[in-house]
Design a protein that fits this description.
43% helix, alpha/beta, 9 helices, 18% strand
Length: 309
């Protein structure tokens, strides 16, 4: 289904009105406000026929905010929705970007912004609210300081934890350190088992595809995911002993859930169309230990990301 730019900007305005009704002010010089302005200018230029003024930044902002709208609208009437409000408030005040690399500096405070790591937590929390019950979120302000997993919820009778990490570097040691930290959180948690989820959006080569137009969506998808896929595959060989040690507790499932999100354009009979490249994919780190139960749950995350639940 193709959504017009005019409908997208109308939906985004409804999103901001909804956030304001919750007491969340998106007009704090944050990227949420900046992206709304970029998206509005993009749509105005498109409708005026000023195609030379259409920017990749505006296209990414429009698509990213509309994704947030769709995710939130799918859960806003849930009984567990209010548990998400602190995360939404932090997101409105931080440097979070959905379709591109997030800067370390918060545009509101002018300081390094650890709260930008909360994007993946917010997305996973929305998923947990959608498919689960008894949802527990680590408070984004008064957090456990890395002691607890970010999200714990009940699904199919199991208490499941997901520990989220935002990746800013591509070294093997950085990835392994994040895996170790997440595994320890899951081991300590009051859960049956848990998963490590990584946000790869800050290390994706968005610049490779932003200005291009493609006829096949798999081409830009492969361009932005190739590096992270190869990195995870190389870890399975080069860091086999370390991975076995990290995932030696049966509560910590030996599979990594990777979130990717970007923006590009495709050819169509009605002209060039903006489209989102979004996915979550599971990487089995220890052979023969990835079960049907793992596959079923983690595939649901990808279904949620694509608004198919």
């Amino acid at each position: 289904m193709i959504t017009s730019y005019r409908q997208m900007i109308s939906d985004i305005q409804e999103l901001l009105n909804f956030l304001n009704a919750l007491g969340i002010d998106a007009s704090l010089k944050s990227h949420l406000e900046n992206d709304y302005l970029e998206a509005t200018i993009f749509v105005e230029n498109y409708e005026a026929g000023n195609h030379s003024l259409l920017t990749d930044q505006g296209r990414s902002a429009l698509g990213g905010l509309h994704e947030l709208f769709k995710w939130l609208w799918s859960i806003k009437d849930s009984e567990s929705f209010n548990i998400l409000v602190p995360h939404l408030r932090m997101m409105a005040e931080s440097a979070i970007r959905i379709n591109s690399k997030t800067p370390m500096i918060n545009p509101v405070t002018g300081k390094q912004d650890d709260s930008t790591n909360k994007l993946i937590e917010t997305i996973v929390a929305m998923f947990a609210i959608k498919v689960g019950s008894e949802v527990d979120l680590d408070d984004p302000i008064n957090s456990s300081g890395g002691e607890n997993p970010d999200i714990i919820f009940k699904h199919s009778g199991d208490r499941i934890a997901i520990a989220c990490k935002t990746i800013r570097g591509t070294s093997s040691s950085a990835l392994l350190d994040n895996f170790k930290s997440a595994a320890k959180q899951i081991e300590r948690a009051d859960c049956d088992y848990g998963y490590v989820a990584i946000n790869a959006m800050n290390i994706l080569p968005h610049q490779k595809i932003e200005a291009n137009v493609y006829s096949d969506l798999f081409v830009p998808f492969n361009l932005v995911t190739q590096d992270i896929v190869e990195l995870l595959e190389s870890l399975k060989v080069d860091a086999k002993a370390e991975l076995i040690e990290i995932f030696n507790n049966s509560k910590v499932r030996p599979v990594i859930l990777t979130f990717i999100h970007s923006n590009t354009r495709l050819t169509s009979p009605i002209g060039h169309m903006s489209t989102m490249i979004k996915s979550t994919f599971a990487t089995e780190l220890i052979p023969d230990d990835y079960t049907g139960r793992d596959m079923e749950l983690l595939s649901l995350v990808n279904e949620f990301i694509h608004n198919r639940l």
